[in-house]
């Protein structure tokens, strides 16, 4: 087991990944460009852990030990010294990532793995920013990283099998469900599937088929209820491939194939109605308090679902 790991970038994703490592017993260094970002990340981790205590997933004394395993630094050399596994979760900007890779390559050990959490750059694009491509890999976590089990792993033709095996081992050690893609593809697996569904949800809303609450309910009380345990392909086997042949043949011609975002979403983006981060989006929220309550409710439900899944066959 890798003892010391480092996470670069302490934002939305980085702080959650740091928490996962510390919870699994790793000594983890969290690095960012400003102390205030690191302090804010520690506060977020502390709140996340409080919620786990409240849901009986950890104890108060475990929280203390978890926090003790986290070190923070704005000094890259100090943060990565002795680390055999580095997760890069800095801003989605190729210049920033390449600059960091360049600095890293000058100071890290030969066999230290660099795992990027990029959500939009391909492994080929990332490879252009490093000298040594065999130890570069993508580990794509989902938000909130400390709660959603999936991590998609993308290798390049140059990534060695040993690096893939060690990455999968680390991810399993921190309680994740890694899926290694055989080939790179834009959007990987989960975001392609999500985007297909969200495009259709936008279409249904835009065409007045139902309101936003009911479209979401049709997913959470319907297919989404099953998907926590059986995926779309097993669902097809359970339903019968003859049935699914007809479903796809009959519906594929009438599904949305829109390549552009619908104007009603574009308008919301233009007017700054981005969802919970700005106060309004597809739903209306009664102020910051309601938004915070909804986020807490979401995370509590995710913890409960995790418990159910961990205890199920
Ligand atoms: N937010 C998501 O839902 C999500 C999901 C999956 C993957 N990702 C990916 O994770 C990565 C991070 O995204 P995020 O949402 O956490 O972004 P974020 O903006 O919340 O955090 C990025 C952090 O990186 C820090 N940073 C910027 N330049 C740096 C540098 N040179 N050295 C160290 N730290 C630096 C910033 O100060 C900030 O704290 C991106 O590659 C993104 O595509 C995001």
From TrEMBL:
Its EC number is 1.1.1.45. Gene3D superfamilies: N-(1-d-carboxylethyl)-l-norvaline Dehydrogenase, domain 2, NAD(P)-binding Rossmann-like Domain. The record marks 140 as: Important for catalytic activity. Pfam families: 3HCDH, 3HCDH_N. It is found in: Cytoplasm. NAD(+) binds at residues 9-14, 32, 92, 97, 119, 143, 277. GO terms for cellular component: cytoplasm. Its main location: cytoplasm. InterPro entries: 3-OHacyl-CoA_DH, 3-OHacyl-CoA_DH_NAD-bd, 3HC_DH_C, 6-PGluconate_DH-like_C_sf, 6PGD_dom2, NAD(P)-bd_dom_sf. Residues 4-184 form the 3-hydroxyacyl-CoA dehydrogenase NAD binding domain. Pathway: Lipid metabolism; butanoate metabolism. GO terms for biological process: fatty acid metabolic process. SUPFAM superfamilies: 6-phosphogluconate dehydrogenase C-terminal domain-like, NAD(P)-binding Rossmann-fold domains. GO terms for molecular function: L-gulonate 3-dehydrogenase activity; NAD+ binding. Keywords: Cytoplasm, NAD, Oxidoreductase, Phosphoprotein. Residues 187-285 form the 3-hydroxyacyl-CoA dehydrogenase C-terminal domain. Homodimer. Belongs to the 3-hydroxyacyl-CoA dehydrogenase family. PANTHER family: 3-HYDROXYACYL-COA DEHYDROGENASE FAMILY PROTEIN (PTHR48075), LAMBDA-CRYSTALLIN HOMOLOG (PTHR48075:SF1). This is L-gulonate 3-dehydrogenase. The lineage of its organism: Bacteria, Bacillati, Bacillota, Bacilli, Bacillales.
């Amino acid at each position: 087991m890798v003892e010391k790991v480092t996470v670069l970038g302490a934002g939305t994703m980085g702080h959650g990944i740091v928490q996962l490592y510390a919870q699994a017993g790793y000594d983890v260094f969290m690095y960012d460009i400003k102390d205030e970002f690191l302090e804010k990340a520690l506060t977020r981790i502390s709140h996340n852990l409080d919620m786990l205590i409240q849901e009986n997933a950890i104890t108060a004394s475990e929280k203390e030990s978890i926090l003790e395993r986290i070190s923070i630094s704005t000094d890259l050399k100090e943060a990565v010294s002795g680390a055999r596994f580095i997760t890069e979760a800095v801003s989605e900007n190729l210049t920033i990532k390449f600059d960091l890779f360049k600095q890293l390559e000058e100071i890290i050990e030969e066999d230290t793995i660099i795992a990027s959490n990029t959500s939009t750059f391909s492994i080929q694009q990332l490879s252009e920013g490093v000298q040594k491509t065999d130890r570069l890999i993508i580990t794509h976590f989902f938000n909130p990283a400390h709660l959603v089990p999936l991590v998609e792993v993308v290798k390049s033709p140059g990534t060695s099998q040993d690096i893939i095996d060690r990455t999968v081992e680390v991810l399993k050690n921190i309680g994740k469900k890694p899926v290694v893609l055989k080939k790179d593809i834009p959007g990987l697996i989960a975001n392609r599937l999500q985007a297909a569904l969200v495009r259709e949800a936008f279409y249904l809303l835009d065409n007045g088929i139902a309101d936003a609450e009911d479209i979401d309910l049709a997913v959470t009380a319907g297919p989404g209820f099953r998907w926590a345990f059986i995926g779309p392909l097993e669902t097809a086997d359970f339903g019968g491939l003859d049935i699914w042949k007809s479903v796809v043949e009959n519906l594929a011609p009438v599904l949305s194939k829109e390549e552009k975002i619908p104007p009603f979403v574009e308008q919301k983006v233009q007017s700054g109605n981005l969802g919970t981060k700005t106060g309004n989006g597809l739903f209306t929220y009664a102020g910051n308090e309601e938004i915070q309550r909804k986020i807490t409710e979401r995370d509590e439900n995710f913890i409960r679902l995790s418990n159910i899944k961990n205890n199920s066959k």
